[in-house]
Amino acid sequence: MDTKKRILTGDRTTGKLHLGHYVGSLQSRVELQDEYDEFILLADVQALTTHFAEPSLINSSIYDVAMDNLSVGLDPEKVTIVQQSQVSSIAELTIFYSMLVTVNQLRHNPTIKTEAKNYGYADLTYGFLGYPVSQTADITFCNADLVPVGEDQVPHIELARKIVRKFNELYGTSIVEPQVKLSKVGRLSGLDGNAKMGKSMGNAIYLSDSPQAVWERVRNAVTDPARITVKIPGHPEICNVYKYHCVFNQGEVSNIGEMCKNAAIGCVACKKLLNGALNALLDPIREKRHYYEEHRNEVRDLIISGTAKANAVGNANLQDIKEKMHVII
Ligand code: ATP
Ligand code: MG
């Protein structure tokens, strides 16, 4: 019998994955794949909460997100890749959980507020406002113990824990209360200086970007605005590109910081060094991705078999939950 603890995490299928995903969650997924039984969710229902008018983007992103996860080194023999919309127990649990959450709890959720602002929503749909409830169902349909996510997800995991506690108390169920796992870089900023690199925000470097595309994006990244010429000493502590050096170029970062402060290196040269470090990270990822792009059917089969396994696990748990709720006659 499998006694490993379980991880559930995933990504919205709203486009390709980027460096923020890598440092915020993907790296942890790879590190923990031996120790934990991992479920990786292709969150297409959650994608609909904001991208309901773009079904073809969501469809192609199901493959993209699966391929990005595989490209960073997740082993298809070890992890289970799951398509959210095809797991009926998630939808059913969402309805049950929704009885235990108030509208104000959701309205005051800081991530909901930030995202609504970023999307420019004057009013919120029921689906968008309620996505943290659906996410609680994502995490708990398989009784996940641990959820490796970026900082923006912390309020959602806190809500999930509250819902689970209340549900267990009410119905005598033993749904696992999930724990959050934050990585060292809980939030990678965007190339435009925005607090978060986001795939719907046009400020990202994608894991599948070509070397040319990476350089274009790095070249255009926002730096210290006071540094109009190379002769003016820079302020690395407020420079976005320096932040990236801290994360992706640890070998050279202190030297680069000193040179910047002493006006011994210009922004273009500094960006070229970052570009080199990023491509060293991305080259092996690109190589793996190329394989999966050439073998789309293999990716499809992995998604279908992973989703079947998730349904078996979810249906068994849901049956038990329904019995405890006395909804079975
Ligand atoms: P969208 O803009 O469509 O919401 P996203 O870039 O926020 O896309 P998600 O699919 O919502 O991506 O997030 C997937 C996972 O990646 C979550 O755990 C999230 O916290 C993490 N993540 C996303 N962006 C970042 C970031 N910039 N820094 C750290 N973690 C991130
Ligand atoms: Mg997001």
Q: Report the biggest beta sheet as strand number plus sense, adding barrel if it closes.
A: 3 strands, parallel
Number of strands: 5
Shape: globular
Beta-strand residue percentage: 5-15%
Radius of gyration over all CA atoms, rounded: 21 Å
Spell out the helices and strands N to C.
Answer: EHEHHEHHHHHEHEHHHHH
Unreliable stretches, pLDDT < 50, 5 or more residues?
none
How many DSSP helices?
14
Q: What CATH first level of the largest domain would be assigned?
A: Alpha Beta
Number of domains: 2
CATH superfamily of the largest domain: HUPs
Might you state the CATH topology name of the largest domain?
Rossmann fold
Spatial arrangement of strands, main beta sheet:
1-2-3
Report the helical percentage. 55-70%
Bound molecules: adenosine-5'-triphosphate, magnesium ion
